Amino acid sequence: MTRLEATRRLRVLLKTEAVIASLGHPAYDLFEAGDRAENFYLWGSMGLASSIGLGIAMAQPGRRVVVLDGDGSLLMNLGSLATIATVAPPNLLLLVWDNELYGTTGGQPTATAEGSDLAEAAQALGIRQAVTVREPEAFDKVVDRALREPGPWVIVAKVGESGTASKPPLDSPMIKRRFMAAIGCPE
Ligand SMILES: Cc1ncc(C[n+]2csc(CCOP(=O)(O)OP(=O)(O)O)c2C)c(N)n1
Ligand SMILES: [Mg+2]
Description:
This protein has helices at 3-13, 25-33, 49-59, 71-76, 79-87, 118-124, 136-148, 172-182; strands at 18-21, 39-41, 65-70, 92-98, 101-102, 108-109, 129-133, 153-158. With 187 residues, the protein is of the alpha/beta class. The protein has a single domain (3-182), classed as Thiamin diphosphate (ThDP)-binding fold, Pyr/PP domains (Rossmann fold, 3-Layer(aba) Sandwich). The strands form two sheets. A six-stranded parallel β-sheet has the order 2-1-3-4-8-7, sandwiched between helices. The protein has a two-stranded antiparallel sheet with strand order 5-6. A hairpin with a 5-residue loop joins strand 5 (101-102) and strand 6. Helix 1 (3-13) crosses helix 2 and helix 1 (3-13) runs parallel beside helix 7. The longest helix has 13 residues, at 136-148. The relative contact order is 0.21. The site of magnesium ion (MG) has 8 residues, from helix 4 and strand 5.
């Protein structure tokens, strides 16, 4: 399963969820899978998607929040898992696209290529519902569950590269304004 295939599978399950995509390929694939105003595409701030998602989940407990992180990005901000475990927002799903690479910058291997296990790290830090999936059917099943049942959830999806060419507009203020309006936040 490539990251784009997995993102497309997620897209069909989405309703009003806020979706925060980490910079680079995770954001490009989310845009390619289907733009929506509730999508927040990062163009920088590597590592901070999970922190942003945590804040939104805390501010809007009545809305599901999905974070699409990269393995390299989450590794830069691993402490975020401990904060998520401590705050334990039931409406947060952290989906990690683990391609074992810094794909966006040319494919340098990350620590997960050497065996570091991000789902085990999440569990060790106190997030009970943390799993790794590899197959599309298992992905659909656990994501569907995580969108309905209380979290926090961490789903590490082992994915291949996608080669997506399209990108969201390089206009962060517009992306922010549109997103804030879509989730009903005054600026
Ligand atoms: C602080 C910081 N360091 C490095 C970069 C350069 N950079 C942008 S995307 C990226 C790779 C991200 O890897 P990952 O999160 O695994 O996502 P992938 O590209 O593999 O989908 C890097 C190193 C950056 N933008 N900011
Ligand atoms: Mg990666």
